[in-house]
Amino acid sequence: MAETRRRFDREFREGAVRIVRETGKPIAQVARDLGINDGTLANWVAQDRRARGEAAAGGLGEDERAELARLRKENAKLAMERDVLKQSAVRFGNTNRRRRRLVDAAWKRIESGRRSNVASGN
What we know:
The protein is mostly helical. It folds into two domains: 8-59, Orthogonal Bundle (Arc Repressor Mutant, subunit A); 62-122. The protein has four helices and no strands. It has helices at 10-23, 27-34, 38-52, 62-120.
């Protein structure tokens, strides 16, 4: 027959975690004293540490994870805007270069016509 799963109220969980945190006793010992599975208590302690931002070396607290997610979203948006601007600069830049070449060619023709008029005495 299957065992029914025990449920622990929030007060009990917080008290158990506080005992581990404040006394410095090993999780297994505190779990044994309270009559609960040490894995269960370890999960509660880990969750409390994450919530308090006391994550293991290199880990992030909940606030830091939320900020990281926000910054990644903002970074993706800015990268997309940059790519759009790059593409438009390439498209419009090529058009401007063609226009510039046409204008330069027209000025050369005008200048060469002026020079020939000046040389011929007109």
